[in-house]
Design brief:
The protein is of the alpha/beta class and about 250 residues long. It is built from eleven helices and four strands, in the order H-E-H-E-H-E-H-E-H-H-H-H-H-H-H. Strand 3, helix 4 and strand 4 form a beta-alpha-beta unit. The chain is globular and about 55 Å long. The two termini are about 30 Å apart.
C-alpha cells in the first residue's frame, strides 16, 4: 500500500502546509507488536496490518478532501501471550501506556486533529492499554478516536474466522499480510499448516497465560492454509472504513 501520506516521508514544510488547510489535518497512529505469528508469518505482522489499515483510511480521507497523515507506527507493546516464542518483544503495561499517550500528546501539540488509532494487536492487555491511553488523551482535551475491533458491533463486520476468536496468524491475518507484504510470507510453510480451531478468546477467559497453554504449539490459531490476498484486500477495505467512520464522526 502506498506510503504517500506517511508523516516520516514528509518535510516540515509539507506538514506545515497540510496543517494550514481548511479543516486542519488529521493523523492516524498505527499500532502493533513484535511477536510470533506462527512459522509462516513475520514478527511484524501486526504492524503490517495496522499500516495497511491506516494508509487506506488516509487515502480515503484525502479523496474526500481532508488532509491526513499516517504517523510512524508503534511496533512494541504488551505481548505476553507470545512470550514463549523467540523474537517476541513485550513491554511492561505502564511503559506501553505511557508510550501511546505521549505519542498522541505530541501529535496533538503539533496541531493534528482529530487523531485516530489503527490497531492490529488484539491481546486484551494491549487493548486495555490503548483504551486507557485514548481516555487519557481525551481527558487532556485531545480529540482521539479508537475504533476497537474487539467490540462486538465492529467485530461483526469482519470475517468469520475473526469472529470465532481463532484468528492469530490464521486465515484472517494471513490474508491481510498476503495482500500487503506477500514476500514476507513463507507460503510453502503456510499452505501445509493444519487448522487449529481453538478460540483464543475462550482460552484467555479460562485463564490460559500464553499461546502454548491455549493450544497453539506453533504460535498460530485458525486456518492459515485458507488465507488469500483477495480476502486480505476485502478485509482491509472494511478496516479502513471503520477508521474513516470513526474519524469523521462528530466529536
Amino acid at each position: 500500500m502506498s506510503a504517500a501520506h506517511d508523516l516520516a516521508k514528509l518535510s516540515f514544510t509539507d506538514v506545515r502546509e497540510r496543517l494550514a488547510r481548511p479543516g486542519g489535518c488529521l493523523a492516524i497512529l498505527p499500532v502493533g507488536a513484535t511477536e510470533a505469528h506462527g512459522p509462516h508469518l513475520p514478527l511484524d505482522t501486526d504492524v503490517t496490518i495496522a499500516l495497511g489499515m491506516a494508509r487506506r483510511a488516509a487515502a480515503e480521507l484525502v479523496r474526500r478532501g481532508r488532509a491526513c497523515v499516517v504517523l510512524p507506527p508503534l511496533a512494541y507493546s504488551v505481548a505476553e501471550f507470545a512470550g514463549p516464542f523467540p523474537g517476541t518483544l513485550s513491554l511492561r503495561r505502564e511503559t506501553a501506556a505511557a508510550l501511546v499517550a505521549d505519542v498522541l500528546a505530541a501529535a496533538a501539540r503539533t496541531g493534528f486533529r482529530p487523531l485516530g488509532v489503527a490497531n492490529a494487536h488484539l491481546e486484551p492487555a494491549h487493548v486495555e492499554v490503548l483504551r486507557a491511553a485514548v481516555a487519557e488523551a481525551r481527558a487532556r482535551g485531545t480529540d482521539a478516536r479508537f475504533p476497537d475491533v474487539t467490540r462486538r458491533a465492529l467485530a461483526q463486520r469482519l470475517t468469520e474466522e475473526f469472529r470465532s476468536g481463532a484468528c492469530h496468524a490464521g486465515q484472517y491475518e494471513g490474508s491481510l499480510v498476503l495482500a500487503d507484504d506477500p514476500a514476507s510470507v513463507k507460503d510453502d510453510v503456510r499452505r501445509a499448516l493444519p487448522e487449529v480451531p481453538l478460540s483464543l478468546v475462550e482460552a484467555m477467559r479460562d485463564g490460559k497465560a500464553d499461546f502454548l497453554a491455549a493450544g497453539g504449539a506453533q504460535a498460530y490459531f485458525g486456518a492459515p492454509a485458507r488465507a488469500s490476498a483477495e480476502e486480505g484486500r476485502a478485509t482491509f477495505e472494511v478496516l479502513a472504513a471503520l477508521l474513516v467512520e470513526s474519524l469523521l464522526a462528530p466529536a
